[in-house]
Amino acid sequence: MLFKLFVAENRINEVKEDIESLHGGSITQASEQRMQLDASLNSQKKTQAKAYKAVNRQERQIKLVEQRIETRQPTLAGLSEKVIYTERRFKQIEENVSSAQIDADRQREVVAVLEEERTRVNAAESRFEEQLQGSQAQRGTGPSEDTMVEYNRLSEQLRSECVEDMHTRDVQDRQIQLLSEASRRVSDRLDGLQGQLEGVAASERVYVQQQQTAEAGVANVEREMQQARRDAEAAKAENERLVRVEIELNEKLEGVLKDLSQARAEQRETAREAKLKEMVSALQRVFTGVHGRLAELCRPTHQKYDVGVATVLGRHMDAIVVDRQATAIECISYIKEQRAGQATFLPLDTLQPQSANDSLRHAHRSARLATDVLQYDSAVEAAVMHACGNALICDTLDVARYVCYERKLDAKAVTLDGSVIHRSGLITGGVGNRGQRGKAQTWEAVAVDNLRKARDRLAEELQTIARERRKLAKEEAVTTRLTGLQTKHRISREALDAIGRKLQGLATERKHIEAKITECRPAVAQTTAELEQAKDVREQANARIYVIAQPIFAGFCQRLGIPSLEAFEKLLLPATEAAEERRLQFRTQL
After folding, report:
1. I need a surface site. Which of 30, 112, 312, 506 has the fewest CB within 10 A?
2. At a CB cut-off of 8 Å and minimum separation 6, what does 527 contact?
3. More confident position, 195 or 19
4. What does the pLDDT look like over 129-151, one tens digit per residue?
5. Cβ-defined contacts of 112-118 (< 8 Å, 24+)
6. b or e along 130-143 (b: 16 or more beta carbons within 10 Å of the residue's beta carbon)?
7. Average pLDDT over residues 376-391
């Protein structure tokens, strides 16, 4: 398109040149050529218009695409947060799978160890059975057959005499066996519930840690959101503040420029003034006690006093004020070495000015002490008092005559236009173009310098504010960041709510298990109490049986050399009882 525009423009220029170069010939030929050129020009203008339309169409399409891109930026930020969250979840799942695989491998190792332990216990049980059979074969069958026949006969006799106690003992033996089995089942159930409770508690601890981590993440995101909002508000407030400051600075700069134009800023310094200023600047760089020229250290309180004060100061206007006399001597030596000219110095440590006469302040309402219409620092007060003395600034020459001739005050009177009535009565009238009025312009030059410095300072501050405004974050970037943080906060909050629901489920399960444990403990206590009671009843019945058996088995026990039937039964069945106990140990280990 740009190339077409370029060709069309060149063609238009060529047509114009042909028209300008056309001369001579007939009027008819010129008219025909003009018509042809106009037609060509119109055609080229149409081509140019089409090209402009195409360019505008392309620019509108580009703007539409840019708008769609800006519209989709928040969505893209949200999708980025979701991708990050999904990747983090995928990584966590991979870690969980790895942990589960490690746990499975560890459980397989435990199962292998238990299988080896079971094989070893079975082998030990087999060896025990073989040893038991071998020991029984070596010891024989125990008591003799006659002894056992007599034992059985006496046992029948005993049974006939204590049928109820025998029946009670047998019933209690069966009851003890049933209660032992029931107690074991209840204890196993209680142990299982306690194991489940421990598992639920472990899961709760894990989820509590995850909840704390999620809460910390949510809190962090909320802090970031608050910080983003604060940044947006701060950026907005800072922008508004900078706008206000910029408006104020522009207003001040406008006023300064106006003052510069009114003060004739184009006025140039004389060569002597510039040389004197350069010399004072050099002295201030070299010596520390140099204050500057007296004209620069004081200035009239109002512009109308400029000429009068300049007349009072006279030759002291260009005098240089220093701290000490030694500094003045060093400065003079420096000026001589540099051949910088001549200067008058006012050392503050040697000046002994007279104090102002307070009565002169009331001489006339239109007359004022020169020191009262000057602004100066207290550090250079001695120099100002030395230069001014008791001189009066009078508004008119009539006031000066009244003060000096009628009041006969011992003071020099100076009018606003520079006329002077000396103490001796001599009158000096007016000033020339290059007289005291030129010196009075010193303060105007100082004011102009101050205005120029203010102008440069304000311009620099405006540039600084412009840079700061460019550095401020754009509203679109802050909005995009805030949208991304909101999406991240929503995802984190959903994860936190899921953990909370899991913890609620675990809490419900824990309460259910605790309720079952509460129900199971009375059953365990009741079964244990019933078992102990059954054992007590059996022991009591057994004791009564042995009491009745004592006279019946007395001769039997005497022949065998044993003290009682109970001792005989303990000698008869110890191996069997030991074997049963050992078998029970093996079964317990399995």
Report:
1. 112
2. 179, 182, 183, 186
3. 195
4. 676 666 555 544 455 667 777 77
5. 117/589, 118/590
6. eebeeeeeeeeeee
7. 88
The whole-chain average pLDDT of the chain stands at: 78
The pLDDT assigned to 321 comes to 92
For the residues of 207-220, what is the DSSP string, one character each? HHHHHHHHHHHHHH
Give me the DSSP letters along 512-576: HHHHHHHHHHHHHHHHHHHHHHHHHHHHHHHHHHHHHHHHHTHHHHHHHT-S-HHHHHHHHSHHH
Task: Label residue 99 left, alpha or beta by phi (over 0 means left) and psi (-120 to 50 means alpha).
Answer: alpha
Residue with more model confidence, 481 or 281: 281
Bridging pattern class, strands 298-300 and 290-293: unpaired
Strand, helix or coil at 428? Answer: strand
State the Cα–Cα distance between residues 309 and 317, nearest whole angstrom: 10
DSSP 8-state symbol, 418: S
d(CA 480, CA 75): 9
Residue-wise pLDDT tens digits, 316-371: 888 999 998 888 888 998 888 888 778 889 998 888 887 778 888 888 888 888 88
Q: Annotate 451-471 with b (16+ C-beta within 10 A) or e (fewer).
A: beebbeebeebbeebeeeeee
C-alpha separations of 322 from 325, 329, 389 in Å: 8, 10, 19
Interaxial angle between packed helices 475-552 and 565-572, expressed in degrees from 0 to 180 and rounded to the nearest 10: 120
CA distances from 559 to 134, 150, 547 (A): 30, 12, 19
SS3 annotation, 281-318: HHHHHHCCCEEEEHHHHEEECCHHHHHHHHHHHHHHHH
Residue 325 tokens, joined: 């006399």
Give the number of C-alpha atoms closer than 13 A to the C-alpha of residue 257, restricted to the C-beta side. 9
- pTM score, whole prediction: 0.34
Residue 143 is predicted with a pLDDT of 58
**Using CA atoms, how far apart are residues 371 and 300, in angstroms rounded to an integer?**
9
Helix, strand, coil % over all residues of the chain, rounded to 5:
80, 5, 15
pLDDT digits (tens, 9 = 90+) for 506-561: 888 888 888 888 888 888 888 888 888 888 888 888 888 778 878 877 777 877 77
Each residue of 147-180: b (16+ CB within 10 Å) or e? eeebbeebbeebeeebeebbebbeebeebbeebe
CA distance 282 to 331: 10
| Distance separating alpha carbons of residues 166 and 158, to the nearest angstrom | 9
What's residue 547's pLDDT? 80
Q: Are strands 374-376 and 413-415 parallel, antiparallel or unpaired?
A: unpaired
Handedness of CA 442, 447, 450, 452 (dihedral sign): negative
